[in-house]
Amino acid sequence: MSTLSLLLPYNLGSLEIKNRVVMAPLTRRRAGTQDEPLPMHVNYYQQRSGAGLIITEASQISPFGKGYPNTPGIYSETQINAWRKICHAVHAKGGKIFLQLWHVGRYSHPDLLPGGSLPVAPSPLKVSGWINVGAEKKETVVPKELSKDEIKSILKDYQIASENALKAGFDGVEIHGANGYLIDQFLQDGSNHRSDEYGGHIENRSRFLFEVIGTICDIWESGRVGLRLSPSGTKMDMSDSNSIKHFSYIINQLNNYNLAYLHLLEPWFDVSHLANYANHVAVYYRPFYKGTLIASGGLNKDTATELIDNGMADLVAFGKAFISNPDLVRRFELNAPLNDWDVDTFYGGDERGFTDYPFLKT
Ligand SMILES: Cc1cc2nc3c(=O)[nH]c(=O)nc-3n(C[C@H](O)[C@H](O)[C@H](O)COP(=O)(O)O)c2cc1C
Questions:
Q1: What is the pLDDT of residue 3?
Q2: Is the CB of 178 within 6 Å of ligand 1?
């Protein structure tokens, strides 16, 4: 294939997408006072609808799943109505859009949660460091260990959030199972010390993930449900005694679910010193997974093309490059230079650094 392989259409389950370039989920922390996306979000996502598939910023499934100020939710009518405008705007430009469903688990703070509640987690193990709760940062707290009834109640939240995503007009949903949030906290043994059927060996630690998948697939056809995982990720104090063995098990099991895709995130930083590091996670796990694989993390046009041409990934996702290049796909097509991104405007603020990155002059 030529370098234009990124630009070829792809059949993602029952959905045809116009190219292989995916906009990775990107938290931008600009939601309104009711955690609803704003009119500027309509513009932001529409500007990026040249992507084959947009995956939205992570969106909490309930007010208890929130871990940062001003992140959007998908549990209220106001939020559903606001997302609906975004879906319309993206569809009007021939784009497709999945909503990323999020529960942060222990990575939160009572200041961010209703009634000053404690964050919840598989086990009462604190993340080190500080949490941004708005104007200031506060030290993390020991989370409350989830009871089995509380786990059921979170599954119910996933169900309602998935129904809401359907009402809003999304093309599908992506389960956020990566980056040290609730699902990942269950999966990895550094954060899951439970002794019931949700802890211990990997069949038990992955139970919550598969229950979430099952719950969502009762609402959406499985071909419209994606999953993001970050094997080898050490963000948010994550660790596992044998990540390759355990994630290989999970990824093998996923073959039974006929999901839209598995989205694998490369570690964001050098973890080659870890004994169980899988060099290039997408390449490592490709042989295990029979369905559509999205690779993401640190890619550029050439490395992404190589992954597709070598059959190591079916689709490739770009994060920061999509922040600063609304017309990223067109730039790939024309071999045009890319705008640099401005880290200072990644999180919070207004249209600046959000909707004002320049398009190519045609
Ligand atoms: C500002 C910012 C926000 C992010 N928000 C999310 C998010 O909401 N959900 C998620 O799964 N990953 C999130 N990520 C990770 C990105 O999706 C992506 O995997 C990461 O930026 C590496 O890809 P890149 O090298 O192409 O930027 C975020 C990254 C950045 C820089």
A1: 47
A2: yes
Would 361 be classed as within a structural domain? no
Residue among 44, 181, 289, 357 flagged as catalytic = 181
Quick check: is 360 in a domain? no
Residue 202 sits in which domain range?
3-345
In a domain, 350, yes or no: no
For 215-228, the pLDDT digits (tens) are: 999 999 999 999 99
Look at residue 271 in the predicted model and tell me its pLDDT: 54
CATH of the domain at 24: 3.20.20.70
Q: Which residue, judged by its Cα, is nearest atom 12 of ligand 1?
A: 25
pLDDT digits (tens, 9 = 90+) for 261-310: 999 998 655 555 555 455 578 888 898 899 999 999 989 999 899 999 99
Question: 147 CA to middle of ligand 1, Å?
Answer: 31
249 noted as active-site residue: no
User: What are the start-end ranges of the H helices in the chain?
Assistant: 39-47, 77-92, 148-168, 182-187, 202-205, 207-217, 243-254, 281-285, 301-309, 320-324, 328-334
Instruction: Give me 82's structure tokens.
Output: 């606001």
Q: How many domains does the chain have?
A: 1
> Does residue 144's CB lie within 6 angstroms of at least one atom of ligand 1?
no
